[in-house]
Amino acid sequence: MSRVDVVVTGLGATTPLGGDVASTWDAMLAGRSGVSPLTQEWAGQLPVRIAAQLAVEPTEVLDRVKLRRLDRSEAIALIAAQQAWADSGLADSGLDPERLGASVGSGIGGALTLLAQDDILEASGPRRVSPHTIPMLMPNGPAAWVGLELGAQAGVHSVASACATGAEAIALGLDMIRSGRADVVVAGGTEAVIHPLPIAGFSSMRAMSTRNDEPEQASRPWDKSRDGFVLGEGAGIVVLERADHAAARGAHIYARLAGAGITSDGYDIVQPHPEGAGAIRAIAKAIADADVAKADIVHVNAHATSTPVGDLAEIKALHRALGDHPVLTATKSMTGHLLGAAGALESIATILTIRDGVIPPTINLDDPDDGLDMDVAANKVRHLDVPAALNNSFGFGGHNVALVFTRP
Amino acid sequence: MTRDEITSGLAEILEEVAGVNPDDVAEGKSFTDDLDVDSLSMVEVVVAAEEKFGVKIPDNEVQNLKTVGDAVSFIEAQS
Could you report the predicted ipTM of this complex, rounded to two decimals? Predict the structure, then answer.
């Protein structure tokens, strides 16, 4: 049986580098950091006082009344989805809503709403808690709002696999189309948890960079002096479409989503497997699923979050799974770590690398770690013809997701 | 407080909570059918009205407040 081909026909994002895909991509190619000091009053007492905050506030895009009912993570998912939908040209295509699905996840969910409403509960009592609280904090909220906005009726799904969420949501979209449940799936991830509690939690794990005096240098994957990740916020959404459906309507096709590999470590709740066993299997599965050879993967947009242990574990896994030929980059050096949106935003960067033949830089890689024995687009862009590329995402809980994109 | 004053107070709340144009708010208008206020926003309107007018609007009363005029009458009687 011939397999159903799935292509990407729309992109949308709002990130620390820009309010849309074009501005985000331009900033990435310019090697700009989206990390800045947290100037909010609550930040003063925290060990971490930097983050990668949105370049464009949702209030500049959505109207005030609509925003009253949306958690920040929902609002930005909606903004990214609107962009991706417009980009796809599907709005006036006569697509049957029963053939349209949504798969949008978040790593943490509506934490800002939960915490804000808890403050109201404590200060003013239960009657003052907003009636919008539950739909704002429920983890399926972003997927539900995106589905509602577009009228999706083929199923609305919300994957949660921590920092692998965005990639896994895209993998689920691929499955939905391959299995015949939908012709089009709007898929991706969203995250907005820049708040003292999540920051305190991550920093208690000693997972975050405390380079508070040099925000733009704080996220430095594979650099010897890296000291943890920088929290970012944002959303990334792609429109996945059955290839023959896209071809029939003459759609612009960015890339093929050729394959996905998903595994779990079964090892530790937060530590990656020391030999990267789960990651190696995920990459191998993705390549097999995409029906490409190791040698075909000439570029990897790595998960590389700027943590001491994780960055090198991924290098070991890539070496074992692919060999030493791919040129790597870590765009988190510029965007910070968008948690549940990371895999979606990095998929978009991977797709645009294939389109433009240019790999965005890994900034702040001034003194490469001794364990970095692969080629990285360090500190400046690398021009390279990229017919096929891999995007890795890993998450607390032992989630490993690898996606292969190829030229259409 | 006159009925007109209560109506314009409600109009302010409706604009804040549900984005209703204050010019559309009149005693004969239905909250759901004319002003497009859904059930969750209606809860917000009630809580805000209690605060603004210093009244109590019990939950079992809310279902009787179909129009702006119903709400004005209820608030007028309470205050």
Answer: 0.90
